[in-house]
Amino acid sequence: MHKISKLAVLTSGGDAPGMNPCIRSVVRTAIYNGLEVVGIRRGYQGLIEDDMYVMEARSVSNILNLGGTILKTARCLPFRTDEGMETSYQNLKKRGVDALVVIGGDGTFTGALRFSQKYPDIAVMGVPGTIDNDLYGSTYTLGFDTATNTVIEAIDKIRDTADAHDRLFFIEVMGRDSGAIALRAGISCGAEAILLPEKEMAIENLIENLKAGQYNKKSSSIVIVAEGDKHGGAYDIAKLVQKEVKFYDVKVTILGHLQRGGSPSAFDRVLGSRLGFAAVNALISGKSQMMVGLQANYIKLTSIEEALNQHEFKLEEDLMQMAEILSI
Ligand code: F6P
Q1: Nearest-CA neighbor of 220 among 173, 168, 148, 295?
Q2: CA 238 – ligand 1 centroid, Å
Q3: What are 130-185's pLDDT values in tens digits?
Q4: CA 247 to ligand 1 center in whole angstroms
Q5: What is the CATH number of domain 144-260?
Q6: What is the pLDDT of residues 75-125, one digit of tens each?
Q7: Which of 106, 244, 281, 307 is positioned for an S-S bond with 137, CB 3.0–4.6 A?
Q8: pTM for the whole thing?
Q9: What is the C-alpha to C-alpha distance for residues 55 and 27, in angstroms, rounded to an integer?
Q10: What's the topology of domain 6-143+264-309?
Q11: Per-domain residue ranges of the chain
């Protein structure tokens, strides 16, 4: 078993609320166990550029409530090259780092897996941090709960004005390949329809659905569109529908990056703390190339390879059906 003594931590890809509680947990768990800790700024970009600093227990004071990530993040193409990986490896070796915690989504994990296959003397542990909730091996990813609550708060406000004016709103939420936020927000806000990348809904069916709503005396309608929906964005769909649905005045709202910000919810603070704690303990016990995740409220390890290969978000058909029935 390879005993570790110095651990580095980074956040990469899209930021997610809960990353800061997780960083705090990683740093303090490592220090408690006698390890030295290095923080890497801007994800793999900072790894390549050797942008790192020593972290102490006080480096992570008063960050539980902060959105974003104190380590900053980036989407880094050069890390995909052999040259970028070799420079990163040399930078870690130079500092005596022998373990790495990466907090991010599938892009982050793809890089982490390749890196640790190439350089197995650096143990790697993944923490699922993405608002998209699309990683196999964890029922929830860091940031999903907060982002969904942010979306719900916004849609509730839109519902007020939609109702006051008898309007139909198309609201676009994040999720290039994942309808997780759209589905949960749709159920929570009583959306009349939810369009997801995982399941194509014919425009004719959507129109029928909206006409039925009007016939059933609905005063407003809300359609949630995940950004990865196959018909295009909310503006494209609104145009297609507007021609057929004359009884409603149609409006579009794109929620955009506000969904990624904000103070993490209690759920994400606890999840971030648990995952960070588990990640360090797994490294101490000699594990590598794994991801820590939450399954049935217990922390479980899944190999990064499996988390990536099965990463497709399984559409929860039962929730879709329930959402349709409850919005009649
Ligand atoms: O991966 C999280 C996510 O927020 C996706 O839902 C979204 O498609 C993407 O990131 C946006 O990325 P960027 O901030 O780089 O435009």
Answers
A1: 168
A2: 22
A3: 999 999 999 999 999 999 999 999 999 999 999 999 999 999 999 998 999 999 99
A4: 35
A5: 3.40.50.460
A6: 999 999 999 999 999 999 999 999 999 999 999 999 999 999 999 999 999
A7: 307
A8: 0.96
A9: 7
A10: Rossmann fold (3.40.50)
A11: 6-143+264-309, 144-260
